[in-house]
Automatic annotation (TrEMBL):
<dbReference type="InterPro" id="IPR035709">
    <property type="entry name" value="YoaB-like"/>
</dbReference>
<protein>
    <submittedName>
        <fullName>RidA family protein</fullName>
    </submittedName>
</protein>
<dbReference type="InterPro" id="IPR006175">
    <property type="entry name" value="YjgF/YER057c/UK114"/>
</dbReference>
<dbReference type="InterPro" id="IPR019897">
    <property type="entry name" value="RidA_CS"/>
</dbReference>
<dbReference type="InterPro" id="IPR035959">
    <property type="entry name" value="RutC-like_sf"/>
</dbReference>
<comment type="similarity">
    <text>Belongs to the RutC family.</text>
</comment>
<dbReference type="Pfam" id="PF01042">
    <property type="entry name" value="Ribonuc_L-PSP"/>
</dbReference>
Amino acid sequence: MIERINPGKRASQMVLVDGRLETSGIVALAPGDIAAQTRCVLAQLEQWLAQVGAGKGNLTRVQIWLADMGEFAAMNEVYDAWVGQQPPVRACVGAALAAPEYRIEIQAFGQL
């Protein structure tokens, strides 16, 4: 059985299936520098996880897209402080994002 959390016209925010969770891509709610956008995206991710009774410790994989790989170190400073002692596997690549104001997009996968 597939459970779609907060479905929209084009995508659901999150999908639960067979004890696994997958989020859609998450971007910042407002323009800002990479640190501010990273904090905003990670805060949204935590809120989404809480909706299904999960937390950071349930994450198994995180995919990060950065508009500018020159911001990798600044993003990592925020991410490293957030992730804690149970880090999931992670990949980070540079990519053109959907709008020029977006500096970062994150998608997460986990186990319930």
